Amino acid sequence: MKINQYIRRSASWEAPERDLSSILLDLNENQFLDGFLTEFLAAELKVQDLFTYPNYQSLLAELADYCKTSTDNLLLTNGADQAIDLVVRLLFSQGDRVVIPSPVFSFYYQMLSVAGVEPVIVGFERQAQSFTLSTRVVLDALHNCQGLILCNPNNPLGVRIDTEQLRILIEACVELDKPLIVDECYFEYLQHTCLDLCGAVRQLFIIRSFSKYFGLAGLRLGYVVTHSESINELLKVRGPWDVNHVAVKAALFCLNNRKALERAHCELARVKREIIEFSRAYGIVVFDSETNFLLLEDQRDGRLAKAFAKANIRICDCSKYPHSFGLLENILRVVVPAPSDLQAFKMAIMQGVGDQERRIDGKETLR
């Protein structure tokens, strides 16, 4: 029996199995929407939502208003992962080469691999407590490739691509008539989008998600914003009901209650600032981040990671992240914890640095 050679050569993509009794800070899930989502469950869900097939037009209309575009420019997907899969399959063929500044969300490498597409890796560079990307290096690589993939803000680095840099790269792709995929799954934390620069031009494919800011990771809902002609092509390969009814209703609830979401995220921003100040006061390098997660630099002996493990706090050790060129050696990625988990997080920080006590803002903080 013949099996696609590129799929056979690729590694499998396995989601982690987790103990849900742990403090879950490893997958960038939104920790601040318990009350908001409880209200959704109580007020919106009906039995009919489980046994009927979904309708999409109401959500597409609300989403078009949110994105300031037309429903013809939108495609709903089963999470951003399906959006990545569909767009890669639409745009690239076996043997193509695609520029992908790295490190980046590693599912991109997976989908390029199974499609027989070669990733041309352009590395970020570390500068103090942040990371930068060379426009010139990306443009040089683009001339010999069939497209470009960007993640803005970047996962796992948490940094944004400079506005002027982004404009230059978009204009280059339009001029060369090469597709540009921009992953904006953390757009709501950055509040800057490619749509503000050029709208849904034919070469631009924007991928977004309801998993992060909107807290619907378990329902798997993403979407693509692009030219209507490309949407028509993507509809040929997406299933007619790949997005479930509960996800549709939850997304509508989120879009119709944005003020409540904003209040929740003001609290997230407050806790994020508190963690940054606390960690830096204990001598831990915390990198700049435009997202709901932070990168912390551990010691070479991994003492901070061990302290988190001892406290039953799941974090992401980025040391072996693919195509990171050593940038993420001894780097831990943590989502901003819920206020109820903040004390346990701080205790783990203190355990990790090994101090019995430290003065912070003029006050003693004991272990």
From TrEMBL:
Family, as annotated: Belongs to the class-I pyridoxal-phosphate-dependent aminotransferase family.
Cofactor: pyridoxal 5'-phosphate
Name this protein carries in UniProt: Aminotransferase
Classification via Pfam families: Aminotran_1_2
Species whose genome carries this gene: Pseudomonas marvdashtae
Domain Aminotransferase class I/classII large intervals: 23-338
Pathway where this protein functions: Amino-acid biosynthesis; L-histidine biosynthesis; L-histidine from 5-phospho-alpha-D-ribose 1-diphosphate: step 7/9
EC number: 2.6.1.-
InterPro entries registered for this protein in UniProt: Aminotransferase_I/II_large, NHTrfase_class1_PyrdxlP-BS, PyrdxlP-dep_Trfase, PyrdxlP-dep_Trfase_major, PyrdxlP-dep_Trfase_small
